[in-house]
Please model this.
Amino acid sequence: MQNRYAADIGDFVKLSMLRRLAAGRRLGVLWWLYPDEAHNADGKHVAYLDRPHLWRSLDPVLFDHLRSIVESGNRNVEALEQAGLFEDAIYFNDDIPVEGSTSDRRASRSAWFDRAGHAVRDCDLLFLDPDNGLETANYSAGARKAGKSVALAELKSLQREGRTIIVYHHHTRMAGGNILELAHWGTRLAELGFRVDALRAAVGTARAFFLLDATSEMRSHAADFAARWGSKVTWHPALDTRKT
Model:
C-alpha cells in the first residue's frame, strides 16, 4: 500500500470485501505502507467515483466515504482508518523500512514486523496489503524494494488457530495467465500448512485476495461477495486442492 492509492478503485473493492467478510471478527489491518512513488499513474484511478450509477450500489456507504476522502484531497491510510468503516479494527500503519544498507534494512524489517505482529496479536482476522503482494522469486528481506512484498515466512509466523489471514497479491505476468498463477500460489501456500481460497478482482488491474484458513461461513460470504460484484470479481475456492 502507498498513501497515494487511498480511495482508488482498488480500495473500493478491497474495503468492500473486508466489510463483507469481517462481520463478527476482530479485524487487524497491516497496511504494509511503502513510501509514495511518482514514476507511474498508480493511485489516480478514481474515475469510478464519477460513475455512481455503475458503482455506488455495490457498497453505498463505502462509496460515499471514499468520494469524500478524494474530494478532501487528504488521501492517506489515516483517512481510511478515520472513516469508521470497521468497528474496533486495529490498524498498523508504520512505514515499512526502505533506507540504509542491506543489513540495516534486513534488521529494520525484522523489528518492523515484530511490532506489526504485536499490534494485531488479539485479532482473529488479518488483512495484509503489500504493494505488490507475495514474495518474488528472488525475494530478500534486505533488498531495497523488499517492502513491496510479504515474505512467506512472515505469513507463516502470523498463522494462529482460529485466525484467518487475507493477503493482497497484484497479478504478475506469470506464464499461463492469472488462473494458473492462482493455482501456483495455492500450492505454495498449502505447502506452508494453509487452507487456501481466493477472490480475483478485475477492476483497474487484475488482483487477487488469498483467504488463508477461512471458516466455512467466511467462504460462503466470499462467494456471495463475488456474486454481488458480477463479472468484476470471481471466487476460486479450494486452491489447496481440498474438496469444496
Observations:
- The chain has a mean pLDDT of 92.
